[in-house]
Structures are given as structure tokens and as C-alpha cells.
Amino acid sequence: MTLPLLFAFSFVVGFGAVVTPGPVSTAIVSESARRGFIVGPLVATGHSLTELIMVLLLAMGLNAGLNTPLISTVIAILGGLLLLWMGAFMVYRAWIGKLALPKPDHKTRLLSNWQLIGLGVGATVVNPFWYGWWITVAASYILLSQGLGWTGVLVFFLGHISADYLWDSVLSGIVGRGRAWISDRFYKWLMIACGLYLIYLGVVFVWTPFSS
User: Fold this and answer.
1) How far is it, in rounded angstroms, from Cα 192 to Cα 120?
2) Where are the domains of the chain?
3) Which of 16-20, 29-33, 43-47, 195-199 is predicted least confidently?
4) How far apart are CA 122 and CA 32, in angstroms?
5) pTM over 0.85
6) DSSP conformational letter for 38
């Protein structure tokens, strides 16, 4: 895999995960109704710092002996199954109207810039799904990216956090402007499209160990 393709895959997979409503998106919405666009990049910065630590830990662990055929197969299958579950659950919830842009909570107190970065860290580490995603899905990509050395790991990380910064900034901009240019219907079909792509990636991951 080339570096540009690795960046693109990392971005798309990361985008599919970040657009799903969760602690980080809820934190962004709760503050951006009052502080506007800047909330998204600041929360994304805290989130990205946490993910940088996770990437380094996984990369060093894999280099220390996890990169074996058995472990690679287990990671690929578990990651693929998680992607299939994520994608199917996302499509189902979007289809029945259970996914919608989170609404701002006007009772939440105003936070400083540093507090917003800390909020990004806190909202990340309290999310159990985040750990499962990195240990399975993301670990598969780190295994792949390590074939290109530490440059590959860096490109994977940059592709992933680019999706975080993009969506978090869009979300805070939408809420800051009163959600004037995006509808729940658009969000629904965005969720369905992302879910279908995650299902496709899940099939690829599960099938890869058996196709070699």
C-alpha cells in the first residue's frame, strides 16, 4: 500500500467512526452553541493528543513482538467483525431514524480554551468504544502501516486525525450557526453511506487472512 492510499483509507475509516454521535460530539455540541466554530478544533486537539499516545503504544507493542501471523489474523478478524457490527448498527439506527445531530444543551457552563482541550481528552478516555476500536480496527491498520516504517505510522495517524478535525469543525460550525445548512435527512444518509463503507471494510478485513 502506498502512503497516499494509506492516508485516504485512514481518513475514510476515521471519518466513519467520528461522525457517529458519542461523548466527543456531544461535548462539542454542548459548547459550540455559545462559543461557535473554535470549539470543534480545540476538542479535536485533546482527542488527537490522546490518540497519538494510543498510536505510539500500539506501534511500539507491535514492534516488540505482536506482528506475527497468528496475531495478525486475530486482529484482522476481530477488527473486521467490529467494523461489520459498527456499520450494520449505524445503517440500522440511521434507517429507523434513531441517529440525528445532537442538540445543544444550553445549561452547560462556558469553558476556556484549555478546558475545551481537556474536555476532548476526557470525552475520549471515558468512551469504551474508543478502546475497542483502536485495539481491533486501528491495530490492523497500524500493522499494515508499519510495513512502510514509522513514516507509514505517521501518515496513518495524520489521516485519522484529519477526519477528526474535519468533522468536529464542521459540527461546531453547524451548531454555532444554528444548523442552518445541514438537515437531519442529510445526516441520516451520511450515516447510511458511512455504515455501508464500514461493512465493506469489515468484509475485507475478515476475508483477508483466508485469501492469502
Assistant:
1) 26
2) 3-10+22-211
3) 29-33
4) 17
5) no
6) G
